Each structure stands twice: as C-alpha cells, then as structure tokens.
Amino acid sequence: xxxxxxxxxxxxxHTDPGPAVAxxxxxxxxxxxRGFVFPSSEIYGGINAVWDYxxxxxxxxxxxxxxxxxxxxxxxxxxxxxxxxxxxxxxxWVTSGHVGSFSDPLVECQTDHRRFRLDELPGxxxxxxxxxxxxxxxxxxxxxxxxxxxPLSAPRQFNLMFQTYMGPVQDxxxxxxxxxxxxxxxxxxxxxxxxxxxxxxxxxxxxxxKSFRNEISPGNFLFRMRExxxxxxQYFVRPGEPxxxxxxxxxxxxxxxxxQYGVTPARLRLREHRPxxxxxxxxxxxxxxxxxxxxxxxxxxxxxRGDWDLxxxxxxxxxxxxxxxxxxxxHFLPWVVETAAGADRAAFTxxxxxxxxxxxxxxxxxxxxxHPQLAPYxxxxxxxxKKRPEIVELCHRIKTDLxxxxxxxxxxxxxxxxxxxxxxxIGTPWCITVDVDSMEDGAVTVRDRDSMIQERVxxxxxxxxxxxxxxxxxx
Length: 475
Ligand code: GAP
Hints:
- The chain is α+β, with helices and mostly antiparallel strands.
- It has helices at residues 5-12, 24-33, 55-74, 90-95, 98-101, 129-133, 137-141, 183-188, 190-197, 241-260, 308-317, 343-354, 389-403, 416-426, 436-441, 459-473; strands at 37-39, 51-53, 79-81, 103-108, 115-117, 156-159, 163-165, 175-177, 203-212, 227-237, 268-272, 284-292, 295-306, 323-325, 330-332, 335-342, 355-360, 363-368, 379-383, 408-410, 430-434, 443-448, 454-458.
- The chain contains 16 helices and 23 strands.
- A seven-stranded mixed beta sheet has the order 3-9-10-16-13-12-11, with helices on both faces. Strands 20-19-21-22-23 form a five-stranded mixed beta sheet, with helices on both faces.
- Helix 3 packs across helix 12.
C-alpha cells in the first residue's frame, strides 16, 4: 500500500485560518429564527441529537444532495444509483463486523451517572485504540468526570447500533438494526446492480439515505446526530494497486467538491487516520476536515475497504460475489474505495462558511453567501409599493414565470430595505424589485446579494437572465 501521508501531512501544517463564525450559537440562532432547522419534538422539550429541517433547511439540504448526486451519478458513466432499505437482514451487520466492532469506549461517572466517550475527554487525545480499551486507563491518567469531578468507571465498549424488533414477537430472533451506514446496502446488492446495469469494473454504486447511530456524546448542532443522512459511494476496482490509484483520484475530487460549492479552501484540510485509529473495515482512510467553530473535524471520509465487505458477505451468504473479467478471463473479488459524506454535516458546513457580517451605512448587514445552486430560494420578487395593484400584479406575474424553473418567492411584508436584508440573511442570490417606473419602461431592478449592485433589466428578459446566471454558477 502506498501512502498519501505527504498531502495529508502538508495540509496539517497549514496555519489555522480560524472559523467562519466565532460562536456556533450565531448559526444555531439564525437557523431557528429563519426556519432552517428546529429541534425535533420541540413542544415536548425536544429529543437529544435529532433535528428537523424547516422550510428553508429542507431546500438547502435537498440542494446539497442534488449537487452530490449530479457530481457522483449524473455526470459519471461509471457510477449508478441505489436506494436500499434502512432495515436489513441482521446477519448483514454480524458479517460486516458492526455487531462485533462498531463501538466507542464509554465511561460513566460514579456520582452523577453521566456517560462520556473516553476518547473525547481532555487528556486522551493521543491514546491508541488499545490504550482506550485498557481497564486501568482512567486510573493511570487520573481522569475525572468533566461535569462534577466525580470518579469515572473503567471503559467499556458501547455498540452504536440502534436495535428494534421486526414482527409482533419481541425476542432475540426478531431483533434487527437500524443501519449505521448506507454502504452495506450497496455491497449486498453488488451482484444485482452489476448484472442489471452491465457495468464493467471499475464502477461505483452511489446512495443517499438515512443512517442511525446511538452516539454516546452527540452534539454541536447538526455535526453529530443520532439520526442523519449519508451520501456514500462504493467504487469497485481490481484488487491491490488499482484500489490505491482509485483512492488517489477520489480524495482530491471529493476535496474539490466542497470548494466548488463555495467552502473557503483554507478551512478544508486532509488528515490521514493513524493505523490504530482505522475503522474495522478500512485499510486506509483520509478525512476531508473542515475548520468548524469547535475545531478541525471530519466532514467526509475516503476509505480503502479492500475486499473486507464483499469477501465476508460471500462467505456468510454462500453467494458467489466474484467479478468475471471477460477480457482477461479472470475471476476475482473486487476491492472497494468508498467516499462517505454526511448530507447534514455538508449542509451545516455550507451554512457556517457562507455566514457574513459587514457594516453597510452604519448598520450590520448579515448575509449568507451560499452558492446559488445551494441557496434555498434563487430569487425573491419584491414590490416597492405594495399598495399599487399594478405593481403587485406584475410582481406575481414575474414570480409565477420564474417558479416554472426555480424556487422563487414574493414578499411584501416590510419596507424594501428590510425585505432585502431578510433575503440576504437566508442567502437568496437575487432580488427583483418592481417600482413605479416599471409601469412606464417595462423594466425591473435586479439586485445581486453579494455585490449589492443593482441593474435595470426588461421584464421580458428577467426570467432568462436569472436562469442564465444560475446555469453559469453551476460551472
Ligand atoms: N460507510 C462509512 C462510514 O459510515 P463514517 O466516517 O463513519 O464512515 C461517514 O461516516 C460520514 O457520515 C461522516 O464523514 C459524516 O459526514 C457523516 N456522519 C457520521 N456520523 C454522523 C453523525 N452522528 N451525525 C451526522 N453525520 C454523521
């Protein structure tokens, strides 16, 4: 296995650019106030680590998923899509190693009974996996409960999979799991997809879907949730060197995708996993990390999973999952290079990185410089005078025409200055204002969110102009 240690290490040496917002609270409060994200079941006091996407959030997240699907499926001849079930035969998770190994080290405070992930306590940063499992590690390092300073238990392995029962009888035999990753759906469908799509290696299977993890210490808003969505692609290649080569191609491609959609390059870096840190299935893993307000954290992982999954599923199911290469007349089990991203974590990153505050004429202007492809609304149509029926009528005509192509909204609930500020704050790239002159010259004002430049455009051309600008932003 060759190593990409050099680019990863180079990136680690970059100076810290600092986060896009000093406090996470700025984003949490904007998200709540403007209808991006709400706490789940809020009227009952909420449920920890589950979040609901409001009217703007669902648009943003759908756009993130669309952008990913476009890059990973639509624009690729070698990748096809799949939407496998969340519930799978429990044997899948035994075979994949998740029942045995998908766990985190948990310690419990003996006085307040709070539970913590051992590897997230201060002072444990450099511990190896073996040290994290050592029953004497808490005593040796003198670790105490971060909340009340009480004594902590020895670590035990806590499995992160949610369990439930299928059918009316709740016993061991009916126990099933909520999937903790979408990847297994692609492995167990490998043969179905290959035979029906007639793809030749190398080829990939892409999926977007919900995953569930009973995280010990969820938090930081959308960063670590218990119910979340993944965007994962499994790329099947010949064993050995071709997997290394595919890894070296996919890593920079995935790194570039975040930049293409506007994430500040200096706030992205690559970090290779230490051998003792690798997930049970991985031969090699490099994370694309983002500089969140709470530090550098994983945004997406690129993994060389070898034939870990296919070989185990072939053995446990008795199904022959080998690939036959007609050109060379060879039978072999493909290796997998996986790109594993989170839709929520990506949407969260785009939201944070787009946040801007600036002084404009003595006032603070807040705007979200979201990439136009990701912005919830592409355009808002605003009347300068809402009491003039002919102005309102023209606004609605323009908005209805735009709605045939893009998300467009009409708003007349405040003065024009306030309406602009509102749209800036939710990231709408363009506003169209209809005024008294529009009735005379058949033209409207198009205002750009980022430059605040206003231009006069004829009513007949305005829909096409917005469509052209949006198309141009797609690159
Ligand atoms: N199939 C491999 C896999 O699941 P992972 O690194 O555990 O790898 C992939 O997860 C991505 O899924 C992460 O980079 C992150 O974006 C997202 N993710 C994982 N756990 C998450 C959680 N608890 N909340 C939100 N996103 C999560």
